[in-house]
Prior knowledge:
This protein has 119 residues and is of the alpha+beta class. Helix content is 40%, strand content 21%.
Amino acid sequence: MTFIPEIRDLYWTIRHIIQSTFWGVPSGGFVLTFNHKNFTFRTYTVMNPSDKEAGFFLGVFTNLLILGYKEEERTICTDVTNTEQIMKYIFRYTDDEIEIAKIQGSLHAPDDPRFNKSD
Length: 119
């Protein structure tokens, strides 16, 4: 699968990471942590992503590389099947903290019809 980002894809990625050091991506089955000063990130991903999750990860990963970021480390999280479990078991988020993160993510998400939940 090849992903060639458009300007709006890069803008979308910047909007998500610009003021955060943590980004959980439920539709991609992964979590990213950032060191913006060094333009690096760490990846935590489910062990067996679906084709849709893998495609979404590829897009975000490609965007980050184009924006000048470098992956510092990748951890494949065994025995987890989704982003919420990564947040809970690796980062020790409570259920309430996960719900708050989902709400904040929805409120700050760029409006892009390509990522509507009905797809």
